[in-house]
Design brief:
nine-stranded mixed β-sheet; single chain; 15 helices
């Protein structure tokens, strides 16, 4: 009997010891969760201190972070002709010194989380991933290049007499390569120890949305499109990925948002920001250059984005953008946005926004013809003569879509659809066989199916 009890006690002690070594039992994970995939989206709930949120992020999305790393590092090697060691050292020497402590703790936490799952990625890999959208602004400066920054995304925000209920509606589709865009499938539901509850889309490993669609519990809704052909970078400024995350987390008003984005502005990933306050139904357009910053706002009207710069001085001093080229993707889409807003005045709602993001009307050619001149962008269908965003037939374009309204935002929710909102699927093997010049993508370029619109809602904070 004694031996049986002793053996049982030893087994129990061994089981407890093994459980204590199980990373999934880490107390930092107690408030976090990963919800089952829905129509390609992965929703994670992260909650706690910056270090806890980071660890939860890294642990729950370790496989996806590894996958993101493979894609981004391969694209950097091809596009920038530099090895990953350069981007690690740039992350450490240029970006990290200007990351405030809260986000240092979160980035360190992500690195700890992926390590707990057996990954060899470290802090500098994680910081490099977070800076991937703005590091090219720095490399352009190193190489004394001007212009050439590709515009990304189509977006709108409307309010007052333009919407069906007089309240705000906001929508955005993300334009990028299909390789990294197919991975832009995370819904982050973040309850930080300080600041506001956040619901935003994003990529695994990034502390900011990246394509910057999201909202917070204070009632601020945010999105953006990049400024085409922009040049300018201050290596002593605060990284855009830090300011974008901080604004999503701490802005309680449009003024708060503009202030946070302007403080320490480094010029990286220069955007035209569309912002809405669901409490007041005011909307704003913050055109954030490095030298020129312009804020416009209204309670009755709309703002649209398709990578066109607005302010003449900003255009002249900070871009090489051709405002008189009506065949340019940014200008053609701008024209289409203006027409859609007027045609739908008084009728804009979430369903209308979803239709806008699936639109294939080419305002330059004056016909339905999907390409990179249409709001639902298809660079892979853009032959020479149309293509100005990327090379002809590049596997790139609109990769995912989001729309929400004031009524949905009160519930901390938005609708989202992966792939092209028009319903067209992309088949990688067929495309690479037809255009072998893109064969370098190899196994990182997957099929990108068009998925249905799905509603996502934030969870309540843990009591």
């Amino acid at each position: 009997m004694y031996r049986t009890l002793l053996f049982s006690a030893l087994l129990l002690a061994l089981a407890l010891a093994l459980a204590s070594r199980d990373p999934s039992s880490d107390p930092r994970l107690s408030k976090a969760s990963r919800i089952a995939e829905r129509n390609g989206w992965i929703q994670v709930h992260l909650e706690g201190s910056p270090a806890e949120i980071g660890f939860q992020h890294g642990f729950l999305l370790a496989d996806e972070i590894e996958d993101t790393f493979k894609v981004i590092s391969a694209e950097f090697a091809h596009d920038e002709k530099r090895d990953w060691a350069f981007f690690r050292s740039t992350a450490r020497d240029i970006f990290w010194p200007h990351v405030e402590e809260e986000y240092r703790a979160e980035l360190n936490g992500i690195a700890e989380g992926v390590k707990a799952r057996g990954s060899k990625l470290d802090l500098w890999d994680i910081v490099a991933l977070n800076s991937w959208l703005e590091v090219t602004y720095y490399t352009k400066q190193l190489n004394h290049r001007t212009g050439g920054t590709a515009g990304r995304c189509s977006a709108f925000v409307a309010t007052g007499s333009y919407t069906a209920d007089g309240r705000v509606v906001i929508g955005h589709n993300n334009w990028t390569t299909y390789a990294d865009g197919e991975r832009w499938n995370i819904v982050f539901d973040i309850v930080p120890a300080s600041g506001y509850h956040i619901l935003m889309d994003g990529m695994a490993g990034l502390i900011h949305s990246g394509d910057d669609f999201g909202m917070n519990s204070a009632g601020i809704l945010i999105t953006e499109t990049t400024i085409s052909e922009f040049s300018g970078f201050d290596p002593n400024g605060v990284p855009e990925f830090v300011r974008a995350r901080k604004a999503m987390q701490y802005a309680a008003s449009i003024d708060d948002f503009a202030r946070i984005m302007k403080e320490g502005n480094n010029g990286g990933y220069a955007n035209n920001w569309l912002v809405a306050d669901r409490n007041t139904n005011e909307i704003a357009d913050l055109e954030l250059g490095l030298k020129n910053v312009n804020l416009n706002r209204t309670r009755d009207g709309f703002f649209v984005g398709s990578n066109f710069p607005i302010n003449p001085q900003l255009i002249r001093e900070e871009t090489t953008f051709k405002v008189d080229d009506s065949g340019n993707s940014a200008n053609a889409r701008h024209s289409r946005w203006l027409a859609l807003m007027e045609e739908n005045r008084g009728k804009i709602d979430v369903a209308a926004g979803q239709r806008f993001l699936a639109d294939h009307y080419d305002a330059f050619a004056k016909k339905v013809q999907p390409s990179e001149r249409t709001l639902c962008g298809h660079a892979d269908l853009s032959p020479r003569g149309i293509a100005d965003w990327l090379e002809p037939y590049a596997p790139a374009g609109a990769v995912q879509n989001k729309v929400t309204s004031a009524a949905q935002a009160v519930k901390m929710s938005f609708t989202a659809a992966l792939g092209h909102a028009c319903g067209r699927d992309f088949h990688s093997a067929a495309h690479l066989a037809r255009y072998p010049e893109y064969g370098w993508y190899g196994r990182i370029l997957h099929d990108m199916d068009a998925r249905p619109w799905t509603e996502f809602q934030a969870k309540q904070a843990t009591p």
